[in-house]
Automatic annotation (TrEMBL):
InterPro entries: Tail_tube
Pfam families cross-referenced by the UniProt entry: Phage_tube (PF04985)
Protein name: Phage tail protein
Domain of life per record: Bacteria
Length: 176
């Protein structure tokens, strides 16, 4: 029987996970990236229809988050000309609804802040900034101490899922 795992709370760290720099009180949303394979459409001349074939390469990873108000660290990471590659780490409380126990969730990204969008000001409404990451070259997702997904542009030809690498694929590329 399957469990339902629900995310209850999140803290966010821009750069290093310094406990004094948590954004848990100003973070209003976090969107983990869509995981999607690149595909190529094929419409054979004599076939009965079109199909999309997976190219075994994932599309770019673009996590987003929203911070209430003005955040100096966020603005520094976006600074013109910085092109800095930084870690952004999110820690979460994930509740196993069947067992009632709490699990730690952790997502780590390495990339740059590529877009900073302020909200429109409306008196009496919360004002904040949406942040979008670009050049994401590393993504890890952990739930309850178990690696669910790890991908690194520089070192991993295919994503590692639940700690398992596709060794045969790597061998075919001459990487093992």
């Amino acid at each position: 029987m399957s469990n339902v795992l629900l995310l209850e709370a999140v803290s966010l760290f821009l750069g290093d996970a310094d406990p004094t720099k948590s954004k848990h009180l100003s973070l209003t949303s976090l969107t983990l990236p869509t995981l999607e394979y690149q595909t190529v459409d094929h419409n054979p001349g004599g076939g009965s229809g079109q199909i999309s074939f997976s190219m075994n390469s994932i599309n770019k990873i673009e996590p987003t988050f929203k911070i209430a108000g003005f955040d100096p660290e966020g603005f520094k990471l976006f600074a013109i000309g910085s092109n800095a590659v930084n870690n952004v780490t999110a820690y979460g409380v994930i509740r196993d609804k069947r067992e009632g126990r709490a699990l730690q969730g952790k997502a780590v990204f390495r990339g740059s802040i590529g877009k900073l969008t302020p909200d429109a000001f409306t008196r009496g409404s919360e004002f904040g900034h949406d942040y979008s990451m670009i050049e994401v070259s590393h993504y890890e997702l952990w739930v309850g101490g178990v690696e669910w997904w790890t991908w690194d542009f520089w070192t991993t030809p295919r994503p590692r899922v639940f700690g398992v690498e596709d060794r045969e694929y790597m061998a075919m590329l001459g990487l093992v």
